[in-house]
Amino acid sequence: MKYLLAVPMAAMLMGASAPNVSVIAATGDWSKLPQIRQYGYDHLTKNLMNKLIDIALKKQCTLPGFDGARLNFDITFAAAFAADGTLQQVVIPKLNCPEAEGLVGGALVEMINGHDYKPAYKGQAGWYQGEFTFAYEE
């Protein structure tokens, strides 16, 4: 029994020591920043996509790429990294929808920390630009 509790406790302690990453919704042009590479969608969840479609269907806000039944989501973002490769900040475009901005920002932090996205050159501190895109139909 003690062994089974040790694993969740260790996971909670590791999560507690993770640095806080700020996410900002802003307008800007980060197209001239070096590109961050995308390596997959391992940390993009159906739960996130369902929540975004739900927001759009309920007309809580207008999301880019929503056509009434399908969400073709496509935004660019900027991410700042420390020299040790630690994610420090993410900037997403304003969606004029705090709930959607929180969901998208949180998903990007999880995806970047999960190595779905990585800078091309490890150990090079600075800002990078990336694209977050997916198509989803409920």
Please give a structural write-up.
The protein is of the alpha+beta class. The chain is 31% helix and 30% strand. The chain is built from three helices and six strands. It has helices spanning 2-16, 46-57, 98-113; strands at residues 22-26, 36-38, 70-81, 87-93, 117-119, 126-137. The strands form two sheets. It has a four-stranded mixed beta sheet. The longest helix has 16 residues, at 98-113. It is globular. Residues 1-17 have low confidence and may be disordered.
Question: Which helices and strands, and how do they pair?
Answer:
Blueprint: H1 2-16, E1 22-26, E2 36-38, H2 46-57, E3 70-81, E4 87-93, H3 98-113, E5 117-119, E6 126-137
Parallel strand pairs: 1-4
Antiparallel strand pairs: 2-5, 3-4, 3-6
List keywords for this structure.
138 residues, alpha+beta, 31% helix, globular
| Tally of alpha and pi helices | 3
| Poorly predicted runs | 1-17
Range of strand content: 25-35%
Largest sheet: 4 strands, mixed
Strands across the major sheet, in which order?
Answer: 1-4-3-6
Helix content: 25-40%
The ordered string of helix (H) and strand (E) elements is HEEHEEHEE
- Overall mean pLDDT stands at 83
| Tally of strands | 6
Radius of gyration from the alpha-carbon trace, in angstroms: 16 Å
Provide the structure class. alpha+beta
Distance between the termini: 40 Å
Form type: globular
